[in-house]
Amino acid sequence: MTVYLKNIFNDVGNVTLFASKFFKQVFTPPYEFKEFIKQCYVIGYKSIPLVAITGFIMGLVLTLQSRPTLSKFGAESWLPGMVALSLIREIAPVITALICAGKISSGIGAELGAMKVTEQIDAMEVAAINPFKYLVVTRILATTLMIPLLVILADGIGMMGGFIGINMHGDISFYRYLAKVFDSLAFIDIVPATIKTFFFGFFIGLIGCYKGYNAENGTASVGQAANSAVVTASLSIFIIDMLAVQITDLFY
């Protein structure tokens, strides 16, 4: 147990040092804009189909599962607002971030781990290229920017799924549905949920890069880096979400 706790604190300390190096490098020229745009494309654009399908299913299933309970109390008119609040405040950000942790963080960990094992990172240093700035900074910035955009996409498509779910057992116009959705939303519902997605994205990129960049020698370490990146990033998402809920609760 003591050794296990020691390893946890060592990892936390090393990740903190890794993050401090990122913040130092991100403001220091030269800036790798081309690689940053490429990572935004790989991380953001190529994740759209998976996020869109998941968002639609979340909205549809949440609506169909909630309708019978609300109908018992004659409160079916609350369904659009309930679906919108559930998706925007909690379900869409967390589920989308978990999907991205599995897809993106593992991909980054495996990619950088393979580069580390095959000594490509060492070769970049010999060629007078800063591998940390080129490989790590660009990927963390891309995840920090793209994850919130993917969550917003999941919110919108999820509410479309909710609209279809409602009309499976009823008849409501799209304009009326949107009116009920926006009537139920407030500033305090949207902004904190959006802010925490930036932290989700940052830690997904940070942990994936840390695990891959510090992979040990041997091909087995590549798989270990990818697996460890997913588990650690997913755990960090739940911890950040728990803290965000506690902070947001102070304003209600």
From TrEMBL:
Q: Where found?
A: Membrane
From which domain of life does this come? Bacteria
Task: Give TM regions.
Answer: 43-64, 140-166, 186-213, 225-247
Q: Which coarse location class applies to the principal site listed for this UniProt protein?
A: membrane
Q: Can the keyword Iron-sulfur be found in this entry's annotation?
A: no
- MF GO annotations: phospholipid transporter activity
Provide the alphabetized UniProt keywords.
Membrane, Transmembrane, Transmembrane helix, Transport
Q: Which GO terms describe its cellular component?
A: ATP-binding cassette (ABC) transporter complex
* Cited Pfam families: MlaE
Q: How does it sit in the membrane?
A: Multi-pass membrane protein
- Tagged with keyword Transport: yes
| Protein family according to the UniProt entry | Belongs to the MlaE permease family.
Descriptive protein name: ABC transporter permease
Species whose genome carries this gene: Flavobacterium hiemivividum
